[in-house]
Design a protein that fits this description.
The chain is mostly helical and 208 residues long. The chain has helices at 7-25, 32-39, 43-46, 53-76, 82-90, 97-108, 116-143, 153-173, 180-194. It has nine helices and no strands. 28% of the residues are buried.
Length: 208
């Protein structure tokens, strides 16, 4: 009986290998031959799944974004409120080797050339989805009485998505100025400014 090949799974294997190669060695080393070696397959086999390096690069980008999105959703679970939001956003920060590699890959992806439009579209789609997820958590936090009533969840979701991206980018390019412990502290500080804690009064409800 002939062996059934799961095409999607095999493409994912190659995409993961391409992402690792890109993150560790840069775009110049991300050849089909090098990626095939990283994945444990022959260079001939990879050409059955990807026409060229550009095709593989786009799939590697999708793979990284899917991994980050999955990590965020796992951190959210069935929870809600500001503490859940902090945990979920913290799961995106480069606080361990795997998460740092994800950001290293995203920041290494070219923004020019034949793949530029596809890569930018993936980035925009990913950020849009993240903003929508954050907005839902903020809306839930408001229902729980944990978010200042004067704040608009959509606006704050955009700020928080930008904050996480900015912190990760800053750590990547200047890790001594933006060490890992400062990333989580900055996130916690901002969430503390928009949250209503047990010892905090919503300014919009105070008498003037």
């Amino acid at each position: 009986m002939p062996k059934i090949i799961d095409t999607a799974s095999r493409r994912a294997d190659f995409a993961a290998a391409a992402a690792r190669t890109l993150g560790r060695h840069g775009l110049a080393r991300m050849t089909l031959r090098e990626v095939a070696r990283e994945a444990g397959y022959s260079a001939g086999l990879i050409r059955h799944y990807f026409e060229n390096q550009s095709d593989l690069l786009v799939e590697a980008c999708r793979w990284v974004h899917r991994r980050q999105a999955g990590r965020f959703l796992v951190a959210v679970g069935t929870g809600g409120g500001i503490s859940t939001l902090e945990r979920a956003l913290g799961a995106l920060l480069p606080l361990d080797e795997e998460r740092a590699l994800d950001w290293q890959i995203r920041l290494a992806l070219p923004r020019q050339g034949e793949t530029a439009d596809d890569l930018i579209a993936i980035e925009e789609s990913s950020q849009s989805a993240l903003i929508a997820q954050i907005e839902k958590l903020l809306a839930r936090a408001r229902k729980l009485g944990e978010l200042r009533s004067s704040l608009i969840p959509r606006d704050q979701a955009i700020v928080l998505a930008g904050l996480v991206t900015g912190l990760a980018t800053s750590h990547h390019f200047a890790p001594d100025l933006f060490p890992q412990n400062s990333l989580r502290a900055a996130l916690r500080q901002y969430l503390g400014q928009i949250a209503i804690g047990p010892d905090t009064t919503d300014p919009s409800e105070q008498d003037h």
